[in-house]
Every structure is written in structure tokens, then in C-alpha cells.
User: Fold this.
Amino acid sequence: MSDPSPIRAVKGMNDVLPDAMPRWHRLEAAFRETARRYGYGEVRTPLVEPTPLFVRSIGEATDIVSKEMYTFVDKGDDMLTLRPEGTASAVRAYVEHSVNGQEPVSKWYYLGPMFRRERPARGRYRQFWQAGLECFGDPGPQIDAEMIEMVVTLLSSLGVQDIEVLVNSLGSRETRGRYRETLRAFLQPHEARLSEESKQRLITNPLRILDSKSPTDQEICAGAPSILDLLDEADKKHFDELTQTLTALGTKFRVEPKLVRGLDYYSRTLFEIQGKGGELGAQNALCGGGRYDGLVKELGGPDVPSIGFAMGLERILLALPNEANVRSLDAVVVVTEPSMNVKAAVLLKSLRDAGLTAEGDLRGQSMKSQLRRAEKLGARTVIILGPAEEARGVVQLKDMRARHQEDVTHAEVIAAVRTRLAMDAPIDGATR
Ligand code: ATP
Ligand code: MG
Assistant:
């Protein structure tokens, strides 16, 4: 016996239905366009990668690798993982295709779903969308500043209000190693008061304790030494130049020495943009990024300094001002009786061939119900087909904004719809 109960989507994985799509499209188009202006080209990599790629790059002790990955053994006994982020795959592709031998600097962007088995909440899902950039081959710091400035420009062009840009430097791997010990030594005497999770991290990944949401942990960390005091001369110069360039570009930021972020591969520049407005709530990190100078080499490639960032599309959408999600159509075709259905189908085709958006409801509904539906669909014009008009060689064209109706001939109908569209001020141009 088959089970008739409906099957639901996997927890934390969302459907996006057509009504919600105009906002997604606007965000994706804005991202692609901005990336293009800054010289980035799109890369598409597989959703599934060999598990060791993420273990080696993101790091064993991170939250992502230790508890959030969707890992499985496939029928050929290969250990595979649904990608939890984009950088590791981009670096793998960069190395695999020897891109470094073809050009000194490569600027790539990507856009697609990522998978992490986290506890679902508003702005935190198990499948979520990221848009990101990777720049290979430029040691910075101007490119670091350019990337941060680009994201800020993108967010403000979208109308995201109230953002804060946090920047920090993690220095070299050696500096980070020294800082790890300094921090561990500072936190050790407070161990008993630390949260359970932070006690664990004191052993595995003490830097992450700085990120802890527990108030007691935060209070203890308030007095912690700053990594900026441990930077060597070259790292310090890099960071100073980064902040100078940001200032020259007019990008507001705050230096936050406690910003460490969750991935192992970062070095030097680190940044995060937080949002305060909209419906964000606790999940306020809109995007994060940083420099990963050692990673390409660690994954078997040449020594190529690189920087990248990723933003969560669902979170950006939560931070966006709420705009009406109007779907609009240039024309809706209505029939006075079903005998006109074939004529209506032909008219719909010619409207669409002419590049207009058009819809018709040929299920045999009443005129009243067809007109109500046209209104709901946001029709700019309604074209009514009936036998009486047909006998005269015309259709009725109803202007839904001017509430005015007139007869037009078959030959004129497309031009008449276009005239109405041209009369409109471009108020909803962005979503059409
Ligand atoms: P958080 O601290 O919120 O867990 P993160 O440090 O894990 O974020 P990154 O790995 O840097 O995030 O990913 C970059 C961006 O991707 C985040 O700033 C956020 O906007 C988004 N993001 C990360 N995880 C999720 C998720 N589970 N659901 C939705 N968006 C996410
Ligand atoms: Mg996370």
C-alpha cells in the first residue's frame, strides 16, 4: 500500500516560490552587475566535492568540519561532501586548471547554494545561498580595500540600511600561532567560568572563544590581549595601508581586534559586515571574508596570495527594506465565451513573440472572474475577445490604469499595448 501522506522538504531547506522571486532576481542581478564592473568573471563548480578538500582547507577543529557537513559515501565508496562554502572549491578549480600559469591575477565570482547542518533559525538554514568573490594573485592591501568597498557599494545600492564594517588583521600563520598561545594563557585562569563550549575550544580552537555569544565568556574576553599587538612589521604595514585605503575610498569601518571568524585558512585581512535593520535578529552577519595567502599552496598549488568573501543571500533579503512584491503583466487576454479560446491562444502567442509579458485564463471561467484575476496579476492592459467584436474585426482594449476602454483592430493591438507601457513612469522598472 502506498503512503498518501504528503512529503515535506528537508528541515532547514526552503522552497522559493515565484511570488518571492522578483526580490531574489533583483539581488542576484545587482551582485552580478557589480562584480562585472569590478572585473570579476563567474565560476561554477560542483555542489559535491571530495570530503578531504574541506577538511584540509577549512580545518578539522572548525564548527563546519566538526559538526555541520553533509558527508556521505557514494555507491563507488568515495567519501563526498555537499559544499558548505565556496572558497575551497574555487581554490581546487584554480589549482586543477593551472590558472596561475595563464594569468597573474584572477578575479572570480560565484553564486549558488551551500549546505551546513546547523540548527535552523531565522537567517540560518541548512541549505542557503551565497554570493562570493575570490581574487587570486594579488597580495593587497589595495585589493582588500577594493573588495570591502565593493560590498558596501553593493549593499547601499540595494537599499540595505544600518550596516557596520568590521576589519581586523590576523597576521601570518606564525603570528596566529603565537596569539593562540597568548590567548590560551590569558583564558586558562578563567577556565572554570567559561561556557562548556568554550572550555572545549580552549583546547581545540581558543580564537573562537572571542566569538562566543555567552555573556560570561564575553565579559572574560573583554580584557583579552589584542592580536594587533602581536603583528610583525610587514603585517602591520599591510593593515595600516588597508585602513588608509579604506579611508581614502570613503568606506566607513571599525577596527575590531576580536574579529576572528570560524575558518582556519585566514591570514592578515579579515572583515565582516553586520546589519542591524530589517528582520535580521540574531543572525546579523551579512557577509564575511578575508585573505587566505597560504591556502592555494596547501591545496597543492603554487604560492599565490588570495582574498575572498561571501555573503548570505537570505540574510541580505531579510535586511532589505520591505517592498511590495508586485508581479506585473503587460497584457491579460480575456474571452467572453469559450468559442474564442483558439483565437485567444493565437493572440497570446503573438503578444509574447513581440516580447510582451502576457497571460490568459482559458479554463472557461466567467468574464467577471477572468477580470478579477487580471487585476490580481497586475495587468497593465486587458484585451477582451468576443464574437461581436470579432465580427467587426476588432478587440476591446482596456487600460487598467486609466480605467478606459476602446476598440482596436487586430493589426493595432500590439502597438496599442506598447503605447500604454510607454506612458508609464518607470516606477516599477527595477522589478520588471
Ligand atoms: P555565522 O557566524 O552567522 O554562523 P559564518 O561565520 O558561519 O556566519 P561564513 O561561513 O563566513 O558565515 O559565511 C558567509 C555568510 O554566509 C554569512 O555572513 C551569512 O550571511 C551566510 N551564512 C552562513 N551560514 C549560514 C546559514 N546556515 N544560513 C544562512 N546564511 C548563512
Ligand atoms: Mg556559522
In short: Residues 63, 262 surround magnesium ion (ligand 2) (CB under 6 Å). Residues 427-432 have pLDDT under 50 and may be disordered.
